[in-house]
Design goal:
- This protein has 181 residues and is of the alpha+beta class.
- The protein has 2 domains: 55 residues; 111 residues.
- The chain has 3 helices and 5 strands; from the N terminus they run ααβββββα.
- The protein has a 5-stranded antiparallel beta sheet with strand order 1-2-3-4-5, covered by helices on one side.
- α2 crosses α3.
- The radius of gyration is 42 Å and the shape is elongated.
- It starts with a helix and ends in a 7-residue tail after the last helix.
Length: 181
């Protein structure tokens, strides 16, 4: 009888082993099937999705005041000064930018020299090739040398084209050179 019991235990153990092995196999098959289902879902999802187009943001144009010094002066400031002075009924004989000696002080810097016909001349000086650098202005009557040099836009944190033009015109007007106060 003991033999029978042992045989039965062995059979039951073998059955248990095979059942557990079957369960493991089934489980691993389910995992594989689940993985296959998930990947096919991802594939289907990607197939059905419309491709996302990345719209490039338009490059923001640099403000003209941030452009290189020479470009700002020659392409923006000088033409704008000419336009404003002409708008007031005056004519410019000569206007240019040079790296030369500043009037009165004599140090080398960038100078816009403007000669307004039968009215005056002014020299707008930039210490460095940068519109934010220290600036000065000198004025004179026609065919005369300037006698004073004044600081220009020293308290301004943000220098703009309009600000430079308005302050030049303000200085000329303050000396009653381009109109009545």
């Amino acid at each position: 009888m003991e033999e029978n019991l042992e045989k039965n235990n062995e059979i039951s153990n073998n059955n248990n082993k095979s059942n557990s092995e079957e369960i493991k196999e089934c489980t691993s098959e389910k995992v594989i099937n689940m993985n296959e289902n998930n990947s096919s879902k991802v594939d289907k999802k990607n197939e059905n999705d419309t491709p996302t187009k990345t719209i490039p943001k338009p490059k923001k144009e640099l403000p003209i005041e941030k452009k290189p010094f020479q470009e700002f002066i020659n392409i923006h400031l000088i033409p704008a000064l000419i336009e404003e002075i002409n708008h007031r009924g005056l004519e410019i004989n000569n206007i240019n930018l040079k790296n030369t000696n500043r009037p009165i002080a004599g140090d080398k810097c960038w100078v816009i020299n403007c000669e307004i016909k039968d009215t005056c001349s002014f020299w707008l000086s930039f210490e460095k090739e940068d519109i934010s650098s220290l600036k000065s202005i000198s004025l004179s009557k026609p065919n005369q040398e300037p006698s004073i040099i004044e600081s220009f836009l020293i308290d301004e944190k943000r220098i703009t084209l309009k600000l430079i033009i308005s302050r030049v015109l303000q200085r000329l007007n303050g000396q009653k050179l381009i109109g009545v106060n």
